[in-house]
């Protein structure tokens, strides 16, 4: 116990006596403020033996006994665990003297209070506290205090802005108190009220430690907040919003098997599309993060699928709002020309992709730096609205040759926007060659081996592998051949694990587009499931 000074002992003994069983707001705030330091002190107590502890801190048993009835200490798992460890370590398995023997009796009694609900000591406590078990007593005591503090914060939110600003000192104090107890379920209403207050009063009265603890607890799933509170957190802290967007991206990149089956559900569950529809700056921030990632790995199909599905989920939320509450599209897409914005943000129908293709071509013929920026913005919008490209690829399954050029051009631009090395004409030629072979492969019975080999060879090419794969998978999904033959072709063409992973992401984009369609084609959905299962097989 050399690490524990007399000053520390006197300070903490005085604190324990002052706190007692007080469940007032002031007692809760004071305990919460000192909870981190208390944990450090209990760690020091753990370093010594029973005899050393009793010599340095003769009232250690009384001290620990007082802490056992403090709601903040007991409800906080880390503090309770330290308290239990202190008691266990101080217990002497073979007491050498009367001091250690007496200490053992104390420790047994305290442990009964903390971990047993059957012993007589707890029965005594239950009677003392109006028929409640210790665990329930501590929980309800803390909940009562938190409820009073939450009401105070809510009242300040409902009042005038001046009143709210006058209470900023109290708000800061409450936020500080929450830091040590942020993972306690009873604290969630107060945390939500504090975040709401910060939004309404427009001032930075919450300290960064409070925000950091909330964010870390949310990410680690140790804290559950209402949706409104999470959105308020993102509005208050750009860092937390960026963390949420990156967390969604990382989850998509790390678990392709799960994500490719339910990407739209996962994106909606993240709350980002809903928050983006109500707060333009949230959409712009998330958009910028994904945009920067895409510029680094522009051929990553998982990132493209995430951007497409996020945008689609966002647009569904936005169009679901009342017209008077809805911000104009220009606010969310400030860098895109009007002639592209309105058409692309409309759900494709019929042969509309042919028209979209013609809208893109003129801008590509100009060489100014400004137009290069405009082309990038147009391409990024096409990635966000990737269902247009998916629709174009679907049309190519049934298209007659004279209608194919514009659709193939759109698909080529989607996969190769920069025209590196002036290869677009060559890439378009590859797209047409692949399309010709795929038509013969899927429309002829039995599938001609020559065309199957040609498709495999085109897929192995680094020039347009993703483009060919995109076309191939649309033929597997939308052609009318027997599913057994489609599966057989898929097994023969897609043999590499990396290609199969890419294929799963393209199927995920197709599935999300079809899920949002007004009508459902059971045959196509059934085939999607079969193809997904086929690709997951080793």
UniProtKB/TrEMBL annotation:
Signal peptide: none annotated. One of its GO terms (biological process) is cellular response to oxidative stress. It comes from the Eukaryota. The lineage of its organism: Eukaryota, Metazoa, Chordata, Craniata, Vertebrata. InterPro entries: FANCC (IPR000686). It holds the Pfam family Fanconi_C. This is Fanconi anemia group C protein-like. Coiled coil: none annotated. It comes from Sinocyclocheilus anshuiensis. GO terms for cellular component: Fanconi anaemia nuclear complex.
């Amino acid at each position: 116990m050399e690490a524990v000074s007399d000053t520390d002992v006197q300070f903490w003994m005085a604190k324990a006596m002052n706190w007692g069983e007080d469940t007032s707001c002031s007692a809760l705030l004071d305990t919460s403020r000192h909870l981190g330091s208390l944990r450090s002190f209990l760690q020091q107590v753990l370093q010594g033996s029973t005899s050393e502890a009793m010599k340095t801190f003769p009232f250690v048993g009384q001290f620990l006994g007082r802490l056992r009835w403090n709601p903040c200490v007991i409800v906080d798992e880390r503090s309770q665990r330290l308290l239990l460890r202190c008691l266990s370590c101080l217990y002497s398995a073979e007491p050498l003297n009367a001091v250690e023997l007496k200490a053992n009796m104390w420790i047994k009694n305290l442990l009964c209070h903390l971990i047993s609900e059957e012993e007589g000591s707890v029965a005594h406590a239950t009677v003392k506290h109006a028929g409640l078990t210790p665990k329930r007593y501590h929980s309800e005591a803390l909940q009562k205090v938190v409820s009073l503090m939450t009401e105070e914060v809510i009242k300040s939110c409902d009042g005038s802005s001046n009143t709210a600003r006058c209470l900023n000192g109290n708000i800061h104090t409450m936020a500080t108190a929450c830091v040590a107890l942020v993972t306690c379920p009873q604290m969630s209403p107060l945390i939500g009220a504090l975040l709401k207050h910060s939004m309404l009063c427009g001032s930075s009265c919450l300290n960064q430690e409070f925000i950091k603890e909330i964010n870390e607890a949310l990410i680690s799933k140790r804290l559950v907040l209402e949706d409104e509170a999470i959105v308020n957190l993102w509005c208050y802290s750009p860092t937390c919003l960026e963390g949420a967007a990156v967390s969604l991206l990382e989850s998509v990149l790390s678990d392709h098997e799960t994500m490719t089956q339910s990407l739209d559900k996962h994106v909606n569950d993240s709350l980002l599309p809903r928050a983006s529809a109500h707060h333009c700056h949230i959409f712009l921030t998330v958009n910028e993060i994904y945009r920067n990632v895409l510029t680094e790995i522009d051929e990553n199909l998982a990132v493209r699928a995430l951007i497409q599905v996020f945008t689609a989920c966002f647009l569904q939320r936005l169009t679901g709002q009342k017209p008077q509450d809805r911000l104009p599209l220009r606010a969310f897409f400030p860098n895109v020309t009007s002639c592209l914005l309105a058409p692309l943000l409309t759900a494709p129908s019929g042969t509309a992709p042919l028209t979209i293709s013609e809208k893109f071509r003129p801008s590509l013929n100009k060489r100014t730096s400004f137009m290069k920026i405009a082309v990038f913005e147009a391409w990024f919008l096409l990635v966000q609205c990737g269902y247009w490209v998916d629709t174009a690829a679907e049309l190519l399954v049934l298209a007659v040759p004279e209608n194919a050029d514009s659709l193939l051009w759109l698909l080529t631009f989607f996969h190769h926007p920069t025209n590196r090395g002036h290869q677009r004409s060559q890439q378009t030629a590859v797209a047409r060659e692949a399309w010709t072979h795929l038509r013969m492969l899927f429309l002829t019975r039995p599938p001609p081996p020559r065309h199957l080999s040609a498709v495999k060879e085109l897929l192995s090419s680094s020039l347009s592998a993703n483009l060919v794969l995109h076309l191939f998978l649309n033929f597997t999904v939308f052609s009318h051949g027997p599913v057994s033959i489609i599966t057989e072709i898929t097994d023969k063409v897609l043999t590499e694990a990396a290609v199969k992973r890419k294929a799963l992401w393209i199927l995920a984009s197709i599935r999300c587009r079809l899920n949002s369609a007004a009508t459902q084609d059971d045959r196509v959905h059934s085939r999607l499931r079969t193809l997904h299962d086929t690709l997951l097989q080793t």
